[in-house]
Structure formats: C-alpha cells, structure tokens
Input
Amino acid sequence: MSDGFVIKTDIDGFDFREVTDLLNGFGLSDLDNDKQRLVFERSYAKVFILKDGHVAAVGRALSDGIAQASIYNIAVREDLWGKGLGRTVINELLRQVEGCNVVLYTHPKHIGLYEHWGFRKLKTSYAHFPNEEHFLAEGFLE
Ligand SMILES: CC(C)(COP(=O)(O)OP(=O)(O)OC[C@H]1O[C@@H](n2cnc3c(N)ncnc32)[C@H](O)[C@@H]1OP(=O)(O)O)[C@@H](O)C(=O)NCCC(=O)NCCS
Output
C-alpha cells in the first residue's frame, strides 16, 4: 500500500488502545483495552492497517486454519472511509485463512456491503447470543 499505509498482521509496534477506541467508538464492542487485546491475541487471523504509525483499519478472524473461519470487528477510521481499506482488511483476512469456509454476520445496514465484497447470503445460519435483546432490537434476529 502507498500513502503511508502499512499492513500489519501482529499486535506489536503500535498503540493497541487505538484499536479499542475505534471498535468501541462504532459500537462494535464494549470491551476494555486489556480484554480487547486478549481477543485479538487469541484470534487466528488479524489485520491492522496503520497510517503514519496510527491505527487506520482493523479486522480479525477466528479459525482452525484448515477448514473453517469466521470474521469479526471490521472497522475503518471514519476520515479514511471509501479508500478501499475495508476491502483490503477483508482480502488480507481471507488470505490468512485461505482454503477455509468463511462466515460472518453483520449489522442489517451492511448486508449490501458484504455482497459487494463477494460474500453470499446464507439461508441456514443460526446464532446463540447471551445478550439476545440487543441483537433483537438492532434487527439481527428473525
Ligand atoms: C463498513 C466500513 C468498514 C467500510 O470501510 P471502507 O474502507 O469505507 O470500505 P471500502 O472503501 O473498502 O469499500 C467501500 C465499497 O463498498 C460500497 N458500499 C458501502 N456500503 C455499501 C452497502 N451498504 N451496500 C453495497 N455497497 C456498499 C461502497 O460503494 C464502496 O464501493 P467501491 O469499492 O466499489 O467504491 C467502514 O465504513 C466502517 O468502519 N464503518 C463503521 C464500522 C462498521 O460498521 N463496520 C462493519 C461492521 S460489520
């Protein structure tokens, strides 16, 4: 990438708090910094795009690295939307879990986005959420 962008796949060398602030700022998470760091450390695949040393975009995937993977926490800093960073994060995650079946669920307002990025809608997926009311209220659940 150009324009001062650097893609990282490890968690060191930048202020991780910027990841926590980015995700919490969009309501994608409410974890504190230590827990969020652990979440990324435990994830099989992770991507951080830095611009001038600061976090510009993030994403992660849980996976066995062989057969199955699921993507979470895709976010791009708002002043950098529309420049292809989101697609770059997705492509880098797909590269790290190449060969796997990859699933994700998204907020209802982003369904078209993932179809734009080459994902197909599942007909048979189910979820079990501890805080079901939130997901019902936000329109995730039938
Ligand atoms: C969603 C998000 C990650 C997109 O990041 P981005 O860097 O702006 O995305 P990109 O520039 O790579 O791609 C945007 C493309 O998707 C298209 N797009 C955007 N929203 C869309 C939608 N709802 N339906 C169809 N296409 C859509 C754009 O037109 C653009 O198309 P192009 O690449 O052909 O020009 C970013 O807006 C974000 O961080 N939002 C807040 C956090 C969030 O909601 N994350 C998703 C959680 S599942």
The mean pLDDT is 96. The first helix runs from residue 17 to 25.
